[in-house]
């Protein structure tokens, strides 16, 4: 894989050494020995080098998307006892609102909400017995991202950044595009007690799924020429102030300024979609309604993956009190939302595959929980952490495979149960990290993403 | 019990039957052995050993299932099997997914479960006779007390040093003695420009003005530096800067964080309380007492009452998820956060570790944790309505307000009486009027009656003016001890423990106080804030040292335990703790003594050429640590230098506009000092978030000092810095006329020193290339805001 952002020393000297005796300085700037993001080897054979997490905030309904329960039709509109399934009173069943059809060689059923994703079922590994902690969005969303419902813990991406470093010296290891601003907000990409370099770098704007995915302060407010002059002046001034033998702190500051300058001048292409062909843009549904915004997020995710970012999260989210997929009433809205993401996600899977990236990139689609098979109001569904579906594709998981199941009405996971801790452990495993060994000593004890739980789901490993 | 008895009868019955048919015991044993080997061992190996065996090196939940003694002793929840009694065996309950859900990957097939039940019913024959797991070691409190930080604080002897000329006071003797032992010479004093910038930033978070530089450089008399220090210590800016350090350790915030983004509209009172406390140099141990038990302390004035109540906002300020469904868990999590915060902030102890098991490194048993938990579970911190929320009270009324209200009420009462009479009178008159003879008179009377009735109703319904609320705590009606939650699980109830403190830090000679009146919070506050507590004064003195020198004497300044660092200078730490106590826990006195030491005034560069080789971490302090400008000092300095710092409008007061519901809607536009900018847990102000502001979810004893490219991007390209540089350029250009003088003035203004010749030449070249335009000056100023000599304190 060619890496557009990794400079050879020679290239660096060429770009940096424009007057003002920058050659000597470049020597310092190029020193990466103390870079806390320097890539670290995996603990054992990694099946994936990076993760793209497609977060559907609010909780799409499993029984209307990937978990087909014909039994629901029989019970539709009737009160039934959910007590033995762990709910305290009888509830009125609401059958799935979209038709299911078998797809691919594997014959996985997918509802008509996701006709494009359905074309990829032979590449996908469905986890249909997911369960998690937290009934409200706040706790459950924090649990999804940090493995804890209440205590402040580092986000999964921060753990991975800490565990593996960045493949690209010009880019952070953990990038989150338009992350959710509510239900925990920055805690979802927080480093907590890990060093701040591991916190998620935000592209775009938290809570706005339509924001353009760009890094803040990447563009100079000065003209190109003035900005260049200012930078050269500043680095020369720093050089004078640092003296002939700068200490590590000052050296780090000068280094960091140089990296920022490189990001500003070379990696701004990172979020520049214009160099992509029209065919690619079309594949993702860019410049088409209603797929444009999420299409851009997906394409940026692919570019970040290509550039060596370890953990990329893109979010279909907003900042309202009831998150975007949270249909307590008006389940039909799922259709509108599915339209926004179906084609872009399909495009991403195609594109990753045709570029050979799917082999070592793990794509993860999911939410903080699923929804109930019984109704809320006329046509809504409530939160359901007891059973829901998540899927993985690419880096090291079985293809065209389905693991686990919910009960006959799709309410509670009963077979091949995968707790969110288990999913975390499994994703780390695929990255070549033993979740029990990825620890950080803070306030007198070793912490880890999976706390004292988590089992790798071996059944789904390819 | 009855049920057990019945089983016993059946069991003995079958034994009787057995003997009646005279089945030899050996045969039964043989049968059980075959059964075990054929069915049970494979199940245990396949499904349990991964987490509960020596070969896997795992003993989850404290349980081993690779030997008989393992399940006999059991794990944290007690024995796993009651032989003969499947229904009462935890192991069986767990495979049924009742007590626990084992194995976690999925329930075993019914057949397998039936085999396990059968095995237990038959008496759980188990030939695996490996010795039992070692009993968990009990924590030896007395041995724990031998660790340095639990020893009483004692005034050290001041060592004799060879170089008699260098030390100015006791601190310097204690530092120099160690340097002489290591054969390192202390660095020379920092130059006067550097020391003025250093002291002004360290004490106030702002740089010295050019006028202040001129005055200090001109004053060559002996007490010049002392006078500067005293002047700074008396300033409001000192209180604002040092209050911010305190807010870091009490995890101050203006929103809850957690899963929601509710704002804490009353937090500002706590912030103002802290600033005011530093302004008045309130004893630090008094602040601690007020934070923990201000609602229970006696008061002699209204002001004191309000102040003390406000201080307890500290306990309810944590980042909680009030959205959780499980109210018991919320209560436990809040108590946990309070214990953890108090432990780290005031005691330098990571007590939170003992929630689920005895502390792995420090002599803190789980029982100590729940002794403290009992205190906080007996404290009202949450208001549980449909949605839980933090506890508030109505703001107490001042005597004046009360008097005014009473006077108003008396007036109203009198009015009500007279109006009632008037109404009755009017009614009578209306009745008396001959309607037909005089319709007009009747109508006017009725109109009057209506008017009077309306005003009467208004008065009767009048409510006292709505009082603001105050975040604080209270005592529950029935304070009580709480049981241990095994493994920290809310519903896994263990033994109940009496409320109390940390045994290891308590004097063995004094009887433990009886906490049966109230929650015990008041006693806890007094114990923590006491002169005798071996931890508190050390922790606070260490932190003051850390803020001034860059590193604590104990570098892990929120963890004095076994997993923390040892003090580099234990005698000095005790000396500082003693001085703190002697001076009535005054921050100012200790700060003054430290900055007036020769140690504090050393240069940050140069010094002993062997220093780097002998002590690269500079633990012995052979020169000053170079410091990074923190987020607030960076912002406030830039605002001050550009002349845009708002120091005129009222300083404290509410930080949030009335009615603000969510942090997302807030606009950061204030030009006040940073301490007055709201701190939203889910949305930090951009410059704070970029420059390592304290994470408001935690006790932050020492901030990170990261150097990351997003900081450089912020300095180069953010509209804020860009704008500030332009504003500054406009102002500076009005100053000296010629370029050289203007350059010199600009350097002195921003970097607090004159430029070197090299810098002068470079700057001239740069300005010249841009035709000395105002844009060029703005660009120069922005560069100076970004350069290393501005970002670092020498």
Task: Describe the structure in your own words.
The complex is a heterodimer of chains A (462) and B (794). In chain A, helix 6 packs antiparallel against helix 7 and helix 9 packs parallel to helix 10. Chain A contains eleven helices and 19 strands. In chain A, strands 1, 6, 7, 8, 9, 10, 13, 14 and 17 form a nine-stranded mixed β-sheet that branches. A two-stranded antiparallel sheet of chain A has the order 2-3. Among the domains of chain B are: 103 residues, no CATH class; 52 residues; 82 residues. Helix content of chain B is 49%, strand content 4%. A two-stranded antiparallel ribbon of chain B has the order 2-7. The N terminus of chain B is likely disordered. The chains are: A alpha/beta (462), B mainly alpha (794). Chains A and B meet through helix 4, helix 6 and helix 7 of A and helix 27, helix 30, helix 31 and helix 32 of B.
Give the arrangement of secondary structure elements:
The complex is a heterodimer of chains A (462) and B (794).
Chain A: H1 9-16, H2 22-29, E1 50-56, H3 71-75, E2 79-80, E3 91-92, E4 100-103, E5 108-111, E6 124-131, H4 137-146, H5 156-164, E7 174-177, E8 201-203, H6 224-242, H7 248-266, H8 278-284, H9 292-307, E9 311-316, H10 333-354, E10 361-366, E11 370-376, E12 380-384, E13 388-394, E14 401-403, E15 405-406, E16 413-415, E17 418-419, H11 420-430, E18 440-442, E19 445-447
Helix pairs in contact in A: 6-7, 9-10
Chain B: H1 2-20, H2 25-47, H3 49-52, E1 58-59, H4 68-73, H5 90-95, H6 110-121, H7 141-144, H8 170-182, H9 192-204, H10 210-218, H11 224-233, H12 236-249, H13 267-279, H14 284-293, H15 302-311, H16 327-347, H17 366-377, E2 379-380, E3 382-384, E4 388-390, E5 392-394, H18 399-432, H19 439-461, E6 469-471, E7 474-475, E8 482-485, E9 493-497, H20 521-528, H21 536-549, H22 570-582, H23 587-595, H24 611-614, E10 627-628, H25 631-641, H26 686-690, H27 709-717, H28 719-733, H29 739-751, H30 757-769, H31 774-786, H32 788-791, E11 792-793
Antiparallel strand pairs in B: 2-7, 3-4, 5-6, 8-9, 10-11
């Amino acid at each position: 894989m060619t890496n557009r952002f990794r400079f050879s020393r020679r290239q660096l000297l060429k770009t940096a050494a424009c007057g003002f005796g920058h050659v000597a300085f470049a020597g310092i700037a190029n020193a990466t020995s103390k870079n806390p993001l320097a890539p670290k080897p995996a603990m054992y054979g990694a099946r994936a080098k990076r993760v793209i997490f497609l977060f559907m905030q609010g909780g799409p309904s499993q029984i209307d998307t990937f978990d087909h329960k014909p039994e629901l039709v029989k019970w539709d509109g009737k009160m039934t006892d959910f007590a033995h399934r762990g709910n305290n009173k009888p509830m009125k069943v609401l059958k799935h609102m979209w038709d299911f059809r078998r797809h691919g060689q594997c014959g996985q059923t997918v509802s008509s909400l996701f006709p494009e994703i359905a074309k990829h079922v032979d590449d996908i590994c469905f986890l249909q017995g997911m369960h998690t902690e937290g009934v409200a969005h706040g706790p459950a969303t924090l649990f999804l991202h940090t493995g804890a419902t209440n205590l402040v813990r580092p986000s999964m991406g921060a753990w991975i950044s800490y565990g593996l470093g960045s493949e690209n010296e010009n880019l952070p290891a953990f990038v989150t595009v338009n992350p959710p601003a509510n239900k925990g907000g920055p805690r979802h990409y927080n480093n907590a007690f890990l060093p701040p370099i591991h916190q998620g770098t935000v592209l775009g704007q938290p809570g706005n799924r339509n924001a353009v995915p760009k890094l803040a302060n990447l563009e100079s407010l000065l003209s190109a020429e003035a900005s260049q002059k200012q930078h050269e002046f500043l680095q020369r001034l720093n050089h004078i102030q640092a003296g002939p033998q700068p200490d590590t702190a000052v050296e780090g500051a000068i280094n960091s300024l140089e990296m920022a300058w490189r990001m500003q001048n070379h990696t701004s292409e990172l979020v520049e979609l214009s160099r992509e062909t029209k065919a690619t843009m079309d594949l993702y549904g860019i410049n088409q309604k209603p797929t444009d915004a999420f299409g851009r997020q997906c394409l940026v995710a692919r570019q970040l993956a290509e550039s060596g970012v370890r953990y990329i999260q893109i979010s279909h989210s907003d900042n309202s009190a009831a998150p975007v997929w949270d249909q307590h009433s008006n389940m039909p809205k799922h259709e509108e939302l599915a339209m926004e993401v179906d084609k872009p996600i399909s495009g991403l899977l195609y594109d990753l595959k045709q570029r050979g990236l799917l082999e070592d990139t793990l794509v993860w689609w999911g939410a903080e929980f699923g929804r109930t098979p019984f109704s809320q109001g006329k046509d809504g569904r409530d939160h359901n952490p007891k059973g829901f579906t998540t899927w993985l594709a690419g880096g090291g998981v079985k293809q065209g495979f389905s693991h686990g199941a919910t009960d006959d009405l799709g309410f509670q996971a009963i077979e091949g149960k995968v707790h969110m801790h288990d999913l975390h452990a499994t994703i780390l495993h695929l990255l070549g990290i033993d979740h029990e060994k990825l620890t950080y000593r803070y306030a007198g004890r070793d912490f880890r993403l999976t706390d004292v739980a988590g089992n790798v789901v071996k059944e789904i490993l390819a | 019990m009855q049920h057990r008895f019945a089983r016993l009868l059946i069991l003995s019955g079958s034994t009787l039957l057995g003997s009646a048919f005279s089945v030899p015991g050996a045969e039964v044993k043989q049968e059980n052995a075959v059964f075990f080997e054929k069915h049970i061992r494979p199940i245990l190996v396949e499904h349990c050993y991964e987490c509960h065996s020596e070969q896997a090196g795992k003993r989850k939940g404290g349980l081993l299932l690779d030997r008989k003694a393992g399940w006999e002793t059991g794990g944290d929840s007690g024995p796993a099997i009651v032989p003969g009694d499947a229904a009462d065996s935890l192991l069986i309950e767990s495979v049924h997914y009742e007590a626990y859900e084992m194995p976690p990957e999925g329930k075993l097939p019914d057949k397998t479960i039936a085999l396990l039940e059968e095995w237990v019913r038959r008496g759980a024959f188990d030939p695996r006779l490996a010795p039992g797991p070692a009993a968990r070691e009990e924590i030896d409190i007395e041995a724990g007390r031998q660790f340095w930080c639990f020893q009483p604080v004692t005034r050290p002897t001041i060592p004799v040093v060879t170089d008699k000329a260098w030390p100015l006071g006791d601190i310097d003797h204690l530092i120099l003695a160690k340097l002489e032992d290591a054969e390192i010479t202390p660095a020379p004093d920092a130059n006067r420009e550097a020391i003025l910038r250093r002291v002004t930033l360290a004490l106030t978070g702002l740089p010295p003005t050019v006028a202040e530089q001129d005055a200090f450089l001109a004053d060559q008399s002996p007490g010049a530096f002392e006078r500067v220090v005293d002047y700074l210590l008396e300033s409001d800016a000192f209180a604002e800067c040092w209050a911010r350090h305190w807010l870091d350790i009490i995890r101050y915030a203006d929103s809850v964080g957690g899963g929601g983004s509710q704002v804490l509209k009353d937090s500002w009172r706590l912030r103002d309380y802290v600033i005011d406390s530093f302004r008045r140099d309130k004893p630090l141990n008094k602040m601690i007492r007020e934070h923990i038990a201000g609602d229970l302390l006696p008061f002699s004035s209204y002001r004191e009452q309000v102040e003390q109540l406000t201080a307890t906002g500290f306990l309810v300020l944590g980042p909680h998820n009030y959205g959780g469904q499980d109210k018991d868990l919320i209560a436990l999590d809040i108590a946990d956060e309070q214990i953890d915060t108090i432990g780290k902030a005031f005691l330098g102890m990571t007590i939170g570790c003992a929630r689920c098991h005895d502390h792995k490194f420090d002599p803190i048993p789980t029982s100590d944790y729940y002794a403290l938990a009992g205190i906080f579970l007996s404290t009202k911190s949450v208001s549980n309505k449909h949605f839980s929320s933090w506890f508030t009270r109505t703001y107490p009324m001042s005597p004046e307000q009360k008097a005014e209200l009473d006077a108003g009420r008396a007036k109203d009462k009198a009015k009500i009486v007279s109006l009632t009479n008037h109404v009755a009178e009017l009614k009578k008159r209306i009745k008396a009027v001959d309607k037909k003879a005089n319709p007009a008179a009747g109508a006017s009377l009725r109109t009057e009656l209506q008017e009077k009735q309306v005003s009467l109703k208004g008065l009767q319904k009048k409510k006292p003016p709505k009082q603001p609320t105050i975040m604080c705590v209270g005592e529950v009606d029935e304070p009580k001890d709480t049981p241990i939650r095994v493994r920290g699980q809310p519903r896994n109830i263990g033994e109940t423990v009496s409320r109390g403190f940390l045994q290891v830090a308590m004097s063995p000679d004094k009887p433990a106080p009886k906490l049966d009146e109230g929650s015990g919070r008041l006693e806890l506050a007094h114990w923590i804030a006491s002169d005798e507590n071996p931890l508190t004064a050390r922790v606070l003195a260490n932190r003051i040292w850390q803020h001034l020198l860059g590193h604590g004497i104990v570098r892990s300044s929120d963890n004095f335990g076994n997993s923390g660092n040892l003090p580099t200078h234990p005698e000095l730490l005790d000396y500082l703790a003693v001085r703190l106590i002697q001076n009535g826990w005054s921050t100012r006195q200790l700060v003054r003594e430290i900055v007036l030491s020769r140690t504090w005034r050393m240069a940050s560069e140069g010094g002993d050429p062997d220093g780097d080789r002998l002590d690269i971490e500079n633990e012995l302090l052979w020169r000053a640590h170079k410091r990074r400008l923190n987020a607030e000092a960076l912002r406030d300095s830039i605002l001050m230098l550009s002349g845009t710092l708002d120091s005129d409008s009222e300083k404290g007061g509410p930080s949030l506009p009335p009615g603000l519901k969510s942090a997302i809607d807030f606009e950061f536009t204030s030009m006040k000092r940073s301490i007055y900018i709201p701190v939203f847990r889910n949305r930090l102000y951009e410059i704070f978030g970029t420059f390592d502001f304290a994470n408001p979810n935690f006790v932050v004893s020492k901030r990170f000092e990261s150097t990351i490219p997003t900081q450089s991007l912020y300095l180069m390209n953010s509209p804020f810095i860009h704008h500030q540089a332009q504003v500054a350029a406009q102002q500076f250009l009005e100053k000296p006329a010629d370029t050289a003088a203007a350059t010199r003035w600009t350097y002195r203004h921003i970097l607090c020193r004159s430029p070197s010749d090299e810098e002068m030449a470079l700057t001239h070249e740069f300005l010249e290339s841009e035709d000395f335009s105002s844009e060029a000056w703005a660009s120069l100023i922005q560069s100076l805001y970004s350069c290393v000599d501005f970002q670092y304190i020498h």
